[in-house]
Amino acid sequence: MIERIGIVGGGQMGAGIAEVAAKAGTHVLVREINAELVEMSLTRITASLDKAVDRGKLESADREAALGRLDYTTDLADMADRQLVIEAVTEDEGLKTEIFRALDEAIEDPDAILASNTSSIPITRLAAVTSRPEHVVGMHFFNPVPVMALMELVTTVRSDPAVEARAEAYATDVLGKTVIRAKDRGGFVVNMLLVPYLLGAVRMYEAGIATAEDIDTGMKLGANHPMGPLTLCDFIGLDTMKLVADVLFDEYKEPLYASPPLLTRMVEAGLLGRKTGEGFYTYT
Ligand code: 3HC
After folding, report:
1. Is the CB–ligand 1 distance for residue 70 below 6 Å?
2. What is d(CA 64, CA 240) in angstroms, rounded to the nearest whole number?
3. pLDDT tens digits for 185-208?
4. Residue with CA at minimum distance from ligand 1 atom 17
5. How many domains does the structure of the chain reveal?
């Protein structure tokens, strides 16, 4: 049974996974790179737990218990006793491979599972830098993790079916997620379908076919989507959107995955969406 997990990277996704796991009764150790980022990550989790209490989704006592199961470190070597570690750092292949090498060195349990929350980098490449590729899978969560019901389990030609089954059981039985399985191909299931749609909305806006508000209202009221595509781009982060699009384009060489010039320029200008206060919309 998995009782101790590690999360590498306490940002938007890492904090969300840590929160859900701690609420579910698992001890969670989050690694961030310095004290300031530890503080930001903890603030993010506390705010989300507070929101859950305010919305009547969580008892105050359970909020305290979840926080009591959460610890931080700045040293990857502290992951030594973890049974499952989920890497959730920025979509940078060099950084991720460096982390997988270090985790492989640090983790003592030969049965431990090494997972990545990457939305775009092949799991096979991360597995290949470890001495235990059969223990490496993708566990791709969706933002906001406490609210979104799905997890994509990404399997490789090297992953062991028993390891896949343990990762799936943890996500379903403990975290309460619905799991779908995908092979290790760019975009897996959801992003392979979602990203071309979002890029299409950026192209439509860039071509001046409709305003951002009308494009978003169109998809909210005409297709019952909870958020319009440009709001969703801002929510995901335009830098992440571009990174994912670039990886998909590189994988399939199909124009539908190419980053529209406007998206590229906005990222270069530092307009990254909600996280910087400005993207297709302005946030206060
Ligand atoms: N903890 C627990 N529950 C929470 C919560 C929290 N921190 N915050 C909100 N909730 C609950 C609320 O209580 C509410 O529950 P109810 O429906 O039972 O009342 C529900 O979640 C919705 O919350 P809100 O009312 O605050 O918010 P909205 O109704 O405005 O929905 C949203 C917000 C869930 C973000 C919605 O707009 C949405 O689903 N948007 C689309 C998100 C999406 O597509 N995400 C995927 C992005 S792609 C991705 O992540 C992949 C990556 O690889 C790029």
Report:
1. no
2. 32
3. 999 999 999 999 999 999 999 999
4. 147
5. 2
